[in-house]
Amino acid sequence: MKKAIALGGGGARGLAHLGILKILEENNIRFDMIAGTSMGSVIGALYAVEQDVDKIEKTLKDYLFNKMFSKLNMEKLQGDAQAPSAKNLIRKAREFVKYGTSGDGNSFFANSMLEEMINTIIPDIDIRDTKIPLACVATDITNGKEKIFTEGSLRKIVLASTSIPGVFPPVNIDGVWYTDGAHVNVTPVSVARLMGADFVIGSDVKSKLKTLDAIPSNSRDIMNRCNFIATHLFYEILIKEANVVLEPNIKQISWSEFNKFNLMVNEGIKEARLKLPVIKREIKRLNSPLSQCKRLFKKFINSKDNLRAAIY
């Protein structure tokens, strides 16, 4: 039986993937393949190469807390005599994503900041050379379709998968422009299935649909709300393909709150421990002789259908 984990996008909330992977690793639950979107691509790439959660956690902490904020272009939004704090800059970047801008630029930050982080923490290899097979999702902004990367520069692919529209500019790969994959497949369970997985854990860290106490006060907020409802329902359909879905209790955390690193890792640990009996039970069920026979029969039928299609 082939096992996979689908690591979803959610910005800083994706740090919860580390806690989930830590518990699964401790319980000797290993994966034959990984699918990642956005921050899930970062964590997925690191795990596919290192297979050592503690080392990955240290790598990310060292970068985020020692270098990330010092590399922000603090003059980008400098309207007062004094440059804004890193916290305020991130807040304004978040507002930029939500509401847009009347300026001519296509992003809040230059790609150099994100690219430096990617180049610092991720090795310069082809994605086909990771120890665990990896697929990363990005959005093709020219046709609006999902792009599943399984070959090419790992750094470039992760950069494309994590380039949040508005915050970072699109990434060009082979003449096509890509942005963050969360807009087409935020938790790529379906990608893991396409890779051949029989058992898939979905690590879902997307923002959740909140119940409002009152109707939005203006037309812009109403439109944003309706767009979010539509995408939320679409994502809920996609994630049903997972055997087990892990949802750490981090919905109140913003995508930009990397300072809550430990909180998110701990919430990932809690959720993985809570769902561990379900995961083990599902793995045991799928490893039963009956389930194995069903999979073999299904593959046999599919192979005959493929041969018939090739002949005719």
Structure description:
Helix 1 (16-26) crosses helix 9 (261-286), helix 3 (53-68) packs antiparallel against helix 5 (111-121) and helix 5 packs across helix 6 (154-162). Strands 1, 2, 3, 4, 5, 6, 7 and 8 form an 8-stranded mixed beta sheet that branches. The chain has helices spanning 16-26, 39-50, 53-68, 86-99, 111-121, 154-162, 189-194, 219-239, 261-286, 289-311, and strands at residues 3-7, 33-37, 134-140, 145-149, 171-173, 176-180, 199-203, 244-246. Strand 1 (3-7), helix 1 (16-26) and strand 2 (33-37) form a beta-alpha-beta unit. It has 312 residues and is an alpha/beta fold.
What is the rounded Rg?
A: 20 Å
**β-sheet strand percentage:** 5-15%
**Helical proportion, percent range:** 40-55%
Q: Distance between termini?
A: 32 Å
Q: Got a strand count?
A: 8
- Poorly predicted runs: 72-87, 99-104, 307-311
Shape by Cα distribution: globular
